Amino acid sequence: MIVNSDAASEWMDSGPGAKRRILCEDKDIMMVEFRFEKGGEGAAHNHPHLQTTYVASGRFRFTVEGQTKVLGPGDAMVIPSNAVHSCVCEEAGSLLDAFTPRRDDFLEAHGWPQT
């Protein structure tokens, strides 16, 4: 069993009005918490990882491959591998994202050893 404590990683800037921290990871999966201020943005990007997003609090306008939806607390979605996606925070809140396989670029940015 792999367990990371609540202080698994330090908060790191993740774009305008946004920050992230790694909660736990293994080579096949990673969980990351994102916190956004109202108006915070996740710029349009894509990556080869399959991603799930759960809205823990707040309201977010997500655009995935040109389709836009507003999600609130308790909503979740899957973002396919390589899909161009972005979000704008309409009401301050947090997201819990899982990536498979893990995001080694996040590990490097946070200074975590890769196993």
Protein model, in words:
This protein has one helix at residues 104-110; strands at 12-15, 18-26, 29-36, 41-45, 50-64, 67-71, 76-79, 85-100. The chain has 115 residues and is mainly beta. Strands 1, 2, 3, 4, 5, 6, 7 and 8 form an 8-stranded antiparallel beta sheet that branches. The protein is globular. The model has no long low-confidence stretch (mean pLDDT 92).
Radius of gyration: 13 Å
**What is the residue-averaged pLDDT?**
92
Number of domains: 1
**Low-pLDDT runs:** none
Oligomer: single chain
Tell me the total number of β-strands: 8
Q: What is the distance, rounded to the nearest whole angstrom, between the alpha carbons of the first and last residues?
A: 15 Å
In CATH, the homologous superfamily goes by the name Jelly Rolls
Shape: globular
Query: Helix/strand-derived class?
Result: mainly beta
Strand content: over 45%
CATH class: Mainly Beta
Q: How many helix segments?
A: 1
- Element pattern in H and E: EEEEEEEEH
InterPro entries: Bacilysin_H2HPP_isomerase (IPR052535), Cupin_2 (IPR013096), KdgF (IPR025499), RmlC-like_jellyroll (IPR014710), RmlC_Cupin_sf (IPR011051)
Organism: Roseibium porphyridii
Protein name: Cupin domain-containing protein
